Amino acid sequence: MKEQNDVQQRLTNVEDRLQRLENLLTSINDKLDQPQQATVNESDNTEQFQQWVTDYVSMRLQQLVPETCDHPAETPMHDGPFLDNTNVPCTEEVVHRVKRIPIPFVREMVVQRVAENARSAKIERVDIEFFEQAATF
Question: Is 20 inside any structural domain?
């Protein structure tokens, strides 16, 4: 009998809690359904803040990338390998030939000499023939 009373009491407690939860959810739902009346002052503040942010970002962008700034001409990107530590394009055979030079500082001198000659001769891609001519001291 005591167990039955305990179960009945628990059931009553659960029903009370469910009723309070339902009331709470109903009141929350009613508040959400009501249209929020934004005051004129709040909307003015929002617009002023948005305008300030827009002006600030515009000013910072002009400072970072001014319209009068001179940009260097873009160099065309070439496919394939380049001479070591340069932006001079070359063939795979030239890369292989450069790697065969055993002494590092000599390799660097040869590469720099070939790169200078290629730039002065306006060669688009260094091939073996040009490399052999330009690499001789």
Answer: yes
